[in-house]
Amino acid sequence: MPRIGAFVCWCGTNIAGTVDIEQVVQAVSEMSGIVYVKDYQYMCSEVGQNLVKTAIKEWQLERVIIASCSPRMHENTFRKAAKAAGLNPYLVEVANIREHCSWVHKNKEEATKKAIALIRAAVAKASLNTELIAKEIDVENRALVIGGGIAGIQTALDIAEAGYQVDVIEKSPSIGGKMAQIDKTFPTLDCSACILTPKMVDVASHPNINLYTYSEIESVNGFVGNFEVTIKQKARSVNLEKCTGCGICTEKCPSRKSKSEFDEGLRTRGAIYTPFPQAVPNVPVIDREHCLKFNTGKCGICEKLCPAGAIEFGQEDVLVTKKYGAVVVATGFDIIDLDKFGEYQYQNHPDVLTSLEFERLTNAAGPTAGKFIRPSNNKRPEKVVFIQCVGSRDVSSRGKSYCSKICCMYTAKQAMLIKDKYPDIEVYVFYIDVRTPGKNFDEFQRRAVEEYGVNYIKGMVGKIFPAGDKLIVHGVDSFTGDTLKIEADMVVLAAAAQAKPDAEVLGRKLAISTDTNNFFTEAHPKLRPVETHSAGIYLAGACQGPKDIPETVAQAGAAAAKVIGLLSKRKLVSNPCVSVVNEDLCNGCLSCLKICPYDAIAAKELATNNHGITSKRIVAKVNEALCQGCGGCTVACRPGAIDLKGFTNKQITAEVDALCH
Amino acid sequence: MMYSYYPGCTLKTKAQDLERFALISAQVLGIELAEQQDWQCCGAVYPLAEDEIAGKLSAVRSLAAAHSKGEKLITLCAACHHVIKRVNADMYSNEFVRKRVNNYLQLPKNYNGEAKVLHYLELLRDDVGFSKLAEQVRMPLTGRKIGAYYGCLLLRPSNVMNFDDAENPSILEDFITALGATAVKYPFRTECCGGYLTVNDQEANEMAANIINSAIGLEVEEILTACPLCKYNLEKELGTNTKVRIVYFTELLAEALAIK
Q1: Which CATH topology does B130-256 take?
Q2: Domain that holds residue A518
Q3: Distance CA A227, CA A223 (A)
Q4: What is the pLDDT of residues B4-31, one digit of tens each?
Q5: Across the interface, do B167 and A342 touch by the CB < 8 Å criterion?
Q6: Best of A346, A397, A465 to disrupt the B interface by mutation (most B CBs within 10 Å)?
């Protein structure tokens, strides 16, 4: 029996409030193998850690039990302390008596009993712990950024500036994302394109950045420091190297039926198109669904006219596999579909717009060249009504329960832009609450009310009735209780922000989790806001939750710092808790190979010599560099030939036995 | 196909046309509607008081009778449909109502909301199919501009009625199109007609006027409805105005099937 020391933490009142520490200490001291027990208010503090270190030396402890919070919180802290005192860190065992016990129980007597049981299990397991030696693994010196909006752009630039190679993958034909579509930015009203396009050009020209536009993630394998990612480069039908971006093809394309995605469907584009003039790369793409050549075989005008001979109808999707040390997810957001909000007449009336359509409508490079006119009759509107919270803070099945965060500010901005250019236009804003925390944000919104005379009405709109060329907006002013009827010429809906429709699929490929709204989940909401639960994968921007530009850029920088920190290490310490195969017991069924999510198990041919007769048989072999220690194989193995180091079948059984004692 | 059919009081008195045309059309379409024996008044208004069960009993009797025969229950009057459908939802998901009603009724077998209630329009859409209906049309109403008027009772509350999108419905327009006429969507097509308020509230008349004016504004010639009360209110407001006519959807159905 090894000499075991146990350390019981109070965690202030977190544990001691519900668990009778004195009774626990008494019970633990009577357990077999225990030679030393100590309790302390905060075991994770420097004093507490010193208690552990000193006891290891003075009492020649061979195993250490820490009864405290979850091992996710402080296992590493105490492993380090043990190592400093000369004990192999994997001989430390944590009994979680906080999250699994004191936090979830109220009855002190029962919680104390449970805490003792949990420690008994940990003691049983620890007696069977063995020394494990972590190995070192190489770190691939390159980062991958998924998404080419402002979040991805900023992350890539920051990583590249630190001297590391970065690949950026963008699904659409150009980088730029939502920010490229926006007219002006709050709270300073500078032109979005003017501050974004220089960054886009920087990305394209940076020697450390490699762009994959019109590309998607096909699959992701590997682990921190050594991700293997397969990228699908969709067939662009235009040669990226040969094309000079002259634009003849896009001008002359006879197919004009497709709606421009960049202009939110407010104008049409050719089947061969560049999303917008400042696109990076400035190389068009053929939309094969609408291309006459692909549909009828006739046409090919672009090919005939292209002076560079860059049109390649025969292009096919190409798969590229590359290795990365770190991955940043920066896939952004969308606004919700307004199909379920029939009362606002979005589907039925061209003058009812989403906020993003409004951005295009007021943009100098937009479909009306910045002229503020109604899509229905090309006349200037006299009254404009903004409706906030369309689908935000909406707990019914058609909306989102959260606040989309950006709408109050962009609505104030849009209202102000109208009043600034056309002071005679009457502008109304229906709101539930105005939420404008942020530097200079509240002042900005107040300017809309006080300087520009935008009519803010606290209340909701019930329904919009088109009547002749007017939109009669029926709403309520909840301060006065009056029902209002406003004869508007244009209505702008601040549609809720939502996660990208394919976020969940991408999350599964990367093995990172999404929340109930399909936004990616950070590792800790306060202390690890840009990390995910998968080591080496980080988050930036609105894919983690609705965010404005300043916040997105800050988070992008933070994610980049994490990546730089990781890549700057030449070697990583690997987790020694990996599976190991007992070749004598293995019957070669390879059930483990099928169940392994990390492709860490392969078949191996084994030659055996039985009294001079050589025979060959198949056994499973674990690649320790790939194994993540999930333990799936140990359960799938029928002869019980696989064990997970640090969590062997014997150890688990001993724990269960002790719990049932 | 065989269905249990619940007519309701109004269809036997004020709204005989709604029923008459529905029944002869059903024969042509091969739908067998067997009127329930001993049906009672549905109560006309769904009781909103949570502990009120008396007003729900008659609906449960009809529902249980249809269920015991293994047939879907077909309704025609919008008000009856509304009451029966909502009571059925209560019997399915509200433990309090289910227990008290079953205790009181002492049916041969407890009823737990298993029956399926379909409005005649849902029957046409889901069981017959509008494309099949279009094939049976012998005198298409080509060129007639018809505006659907939904009223409230069929659509709301949408999560219980499950009839159509409450804000932007299309079932009546699809029906009109199947009969060969031109469906006109006018802004007030889902607004309330004023309901029972019109009896003693002059302001409620304005609600009916809004609907009529909205339809006339888009040159609607006939307003189609499935509700006797809506028809009454709209006609009362219309007075001697002949610009537009209020008709039951079943009347146009019979006309298109050439059996009116």
Answers
A1: Rossmann fold (3.40.50)
A2: 142-234+317-332+512-567
A3: 5
A4: 999 999 999 999 999 999 999 999 999 9
A5: yes
A6: A465
